Amino acid sequence: MQEFRDKKLRSERITALTAYDYPTARLLDESGIDIILVGDSVGMVVLGYEDTTQVTLEEMVHHTRAVARGVKRALLVADMPIHTYDTPAEAVVTARTLVEAGAQAVKLEGGVSHILQIEAIICEGISVMGHIGMLPQSVREEGGYKVKGRTKSEAEALIRDGQAVETAGAFAVVLEIVNPEVARQITDALKIPTIGIGSGEDCDGQILVTHDLIGLFPWFTPKFVSPEARVADEIRKAVQSFIARTRSGT
Ligand code: KIV
Question: What is the value of pTM for the model shown?
Answer without folding.
Answer: 0.97
